[in-house]
Amino acid sequence: MKINEAELLKWDADHIMHWVMPVGQNAGIIMDRAEGVCFYDTEGKEYIDGASQLVCVTLGYKYNEEIAAAAAEQLKKMPFMHNFWGFTNTATLECARRLSKLTPEGLDHFCFTNGGSESTEGAFQYARKYWKNKGAHNKRKIISLYNSYHGVMYASSTATGLAMGHFSADFAPLVPDFIKAPSYYCYRCMLDLEYPQCGIACAKQLEKIIQLEGADNIAAFIAEPVHGTAGHMPPPPEYWPMVRAICSKYDVLLIADEVMSGFGRTGKAFAVDHWDVKPDMMAMAKGITSSYIPFGAVAMNDVVYEGLKGSMFAGATFSSHVVGSAVSSKVLEIYVRDKVFDNAAKMGQYALERLKGKFLELPCVGEISGLGLMIGIEIVEDKATKRAFDPDSKVMLDIQQKALEKGLFIRVSDQSWSSGNRISFCPPLTVTKQEVDRILDILYPLVTALKPQQA
After folding, report:
1. In angstroms, what CA-CA distances link 150 with 89, 110, 344, 452?
2. pLDDT computed for residue 167 by the predictor
3. Are residues 142 and 169 in the same domain?
């Protein structure tokens, strides 16, 4: 007997939890299939994906058959092989060798995980263990940024500087010895300074914090090369070279969280490539398989890997999964073969030019910034003062809902949990000029309809 959609939605609400949605509720839509850069609900309605879902579906849905074939081949050949006790396998070896050709030079040692939170969590463990092996037992503190997002596990939640505690307050106490530093969000500078006259004071604050805490107590500094969940804010170009120099000066390991920004999202293989910066470790996920299957990795350089030799770490049962490895290998092959990163750079430049040409002049658009196809649009109530709409007005959620009604899926951030109200423009890296135009043509009247309110 066929169950109607209303009954399915009720069953879903009664039995299935959804992230970032009150328990017992759902969005009232059942998604069914996807192709190209669009997905479809059970009623057949098409939604163009303006956010790569969770900024993770880098290839869109045009390679479904090719990638499914790679997964099926591995499932038939060997569906599982653990990574414990030194066991290795052909699928993982091929994936690692392909990955080493894309990562920044020297970051060619890997630990494979189930996803981004596990990758950042692992990086923290490796940093602390590295220093213990060196005899520096006090070097255990981790510095991260306000406005950052690093995952949902205990250490990664502790490192996260976003959401005013919404993501972690109910689970306190969190992990000790984590410290926050000022963000590089220039439009809303925490230090009330203006770029470039500021002299990149946010980076200099990192050095002051290390000095005040004592370099002998700091294990690592972690940051997203471009703020992701907060709304896609790129740093000033001087920022990453400066923090690399600071970390090197004080013997602090530099961890780049490339979970969202990696694998072509910013128009280069990894966002740190824009500044020719080589971190000591790099957390990866999302684009490593274009989210066809859960998978992630931590890359590390020779210094860290040599410092960990002889140590043993526990791992998750499904980490380094052979099917994930096979899917990743195919996805990495497609990136190179079809010049996907080049398309991201070109389409990102086109989108940014159109956004700045048409959207930036609107009365409620304060700033537009980004790299590649990782772009954020800042929505303000007062352009002169940068005053944001009150979160209680639900302006950002209203934009998101109206876009969905018009067949566009977007993500937004608002000041109920973020530093600013921003619309995410992050379509799949395979997007065409016509598809960019379609997304922006739907979005433009929604932003145009916003009107400044009297303070």
Report:
1. 30, 19, 24, 34
2. 75
3. yes
Report pLDDT for 444: 98
Examine the domain organization and report whether 212 and 112 are in the same domain.
Answer: yes
Distance CA 263, CA 272 (A): 11
Q: Determine, yes or no, domain membership for 57.
A: no
Closest residue by Cα to residue 253 from 286, 212, 208, 283: 283
Tokens of 92: 């993982």
User: Under a CB-based contact definition with an 8 Å cutoff, are residues 417 and 164 in contact?
Assistant: yes
Asked if 153 and 118 touch (Cβ cutoff 8 Å), the reply is yes
- What are the start-end ranges of the E strands in 36-98? 38-41, 46-49
Residue 162 has pLDDT above 80, yes or no: yes
For 346, residues 6+ apart whose C-beta sits below 8 A from its C-beta are: none
Side-chain half-sphere of 14: how many Cα atoms within 13 Å? Answer: 6
Is a pLDDT exceeding 80 seen at residue 163? no
Nearest to 232 by CA among 283, 181, 168, 184: 184
Sign for the CA dihedral angle at 81, 83, 89, 94 comes to positive
CA 434, 405, 449, 424 dihedral sign is: negative
Q: For 175-213, how does the pLDDT look when each residue is reduced to its tens digit (9 = 90+)? A: 999 999 999 999 999 999 999 999 999 999 999 999 999
pLDDT digits (tens, 9 = 90+) for 101-160: 999 999 999 999 999 999 999 999 999 999 999 999 999 999 999 999 999 999 999 999
What is the value of pTM for the model shown?
Answer: 0.96
What residues have CB less than 8 Å from 32, skipping those under 6 apart?
40, 41, 42
Q: 3-state class of 218 per DSSP?
A: strand
CA distances from 147 to 37, 80, 141, 230 (A): 29, 38, 19, 6
DSSP assignment string, 98-123: HHHTTSPTT--EEEEESSHHHHHHHH
C-alpha dist (Å) from residue 181 to 202, 262, 274: 8, 23, 22
**Residue 24 within any structural domain of the chain:** no
CATH of the domain at 402: 3.90.1150.10
